[in-house]
Amino acid sequence: MTDINTPPTGDRLLAMLAALDNPHRLRIIAALASGGRNYISQLARDLGISRPLLHLHLQKLEHAGLVTSQLELSHDGKALNYFEASPFELLLTPASIAAAASSLTPNPD
Q1: Which GO terms describe its molecular function (predicted)?
Q2: What pTM, to 2 d.p., does this model score?
Q3: Cβ(43)–Cβ(53) under 8 Å?
């Protein structure tokens, strides 16, 4: 995980912005930020979306480094995958975008 005080690279910035470009994913981040870590079934109930759809959104958020997950066993032996929001901060200015753009992976066109 990257230090929140370090600006993201161009590739990471694109992944973060793509992950945040969906109302469900914004609601997921909001729920985890306000309610703390949670497991998929409870989070799906809280947000009113299906577990499979929630899982897809969580994968995208986790790939972008915006949430983390940890598999734990409950007291009755059931495996629960807990998710929580990762600390991050985005400052979007023309200068920060220019700095991130300079580190983008080149496209082989």
Answers
A1: DNA-binding transcription factor activity
A2: 0.85
A3: no
Q: Which domain holds residue 89?
A: 10-98
pLDDT digits (tens, 9 = 90+) for 48-95: 999 999 999 999 999 999 999 999 888 888 888 999 999 998 889 999
Complete DSSP assignment for 22-56: SHHHHHHHHHHHHH--EEHHHHHHHHT--HHHHHH
Of residues 54, 57, 51, 84, the one with CA closest to residue 69:
84
Who contacts 1 (Cβ-Cβ below 8 Å, separation ≥6)? 65, 68, 86
Q: What is the DSSP letter of 72?
A: E
Which residues does 38 contact at the CB level (< 8 Å), separation at least 6?
A: 31, 32, 46, 82, 83, 84
Domain of 93, CATH number, reads: 1.10.10.10
* Residue 23 maps to a domain: yes
- For 54, other C-beta atoms within 10 Å of its C-beta total 21
